[in-house]
Specification:
165 residues; alpha/beta; 5-stranded parallel sheet; 40% helix; binds adenosine-5'-diphosphate
């Protein structure tokens, strides 16, 4: 059985992430989306909230599971019996960082392969930080995040007193 892991901070999940999840789930038997807790120091959503938002969004994909991990990614992968890391690439600017991380992971465990999946051209501009910024300005989030989570993102930004107006 082919099992892949798609790691990230997903703070929050965007339509760009969802696009990578949908395409990965169509070529692997099983896909684990893993919220990595150490990737960002001051996340908007805590680990459990991020997992819940993703779960709601991917409920229709029966071969996708959503978890979180505070361990090294290669350790998590061993536990899930997976040898493939999926990374989405938006632009050349993602490449430097992701290439370095891929080489480090290969040093840590040479049996694990990183596969880069180019972003759909519709979403190359999209990042979780842009979503947070747009939310603070009161922008319509419909073209940025899955509709199932729009209200949660707006409510969270409001509750944190982060709105600009
Ligand atoms: P962000 O930069 O949005 O905070 P994450 O750290 O959550 O993203 O990213 C997790 C993975 O998803 C990374 O492999 C990242 O390159 C990829 N990714 C993020 N946004 C997009 C997008 N719009 N299209 C394709 N891949 C993306």
């Amino acid at each position: 059985m082919s099992i892949a892991v798609y790691p990230g901070s997903f703070d929050p999940i965007t339509l760009g992430h969802l696009n990578i999840i949908r395409r990965s789930a169509s070529v692997f038997d099983e896909l684990y989306v893993c919220v990595m807790v150490n990737a960002e120091k001051n996340p908007l959503f805590n680990r459990d909230e991020r997992v819940e938002l993703i779960k709601r969004t991917v409920a229709k994909y029966k071969n996708v599971k959503v978890e979180s991990s505070s361990e090294l990614l290669v350790e998590y992968m061993k536990q899930r019996n997976s040898k493939v890391i999926i990374k989405g690439l938006r632009a050349v600017s993602d490449f430097d960082k992701e290439f370095q991380i891929a080489l480090i992971n290969r040093k840590l465990d040479p049996s694990i392969q990183t596969l880069f999946m180019p972003s759909s051209e519709k979403y190359t501009y999209l990042s979780s930080s842009a979503v947070k910024e747009m939310t603070r300005y009161g922008a319509d989030l419909g073209t940025f995040v899955p509709h199932e989570i729009i209200d949660d993102v707006v409510a969270k930004v409001k509750n944190e007193g982060m709105m600009f107006k």
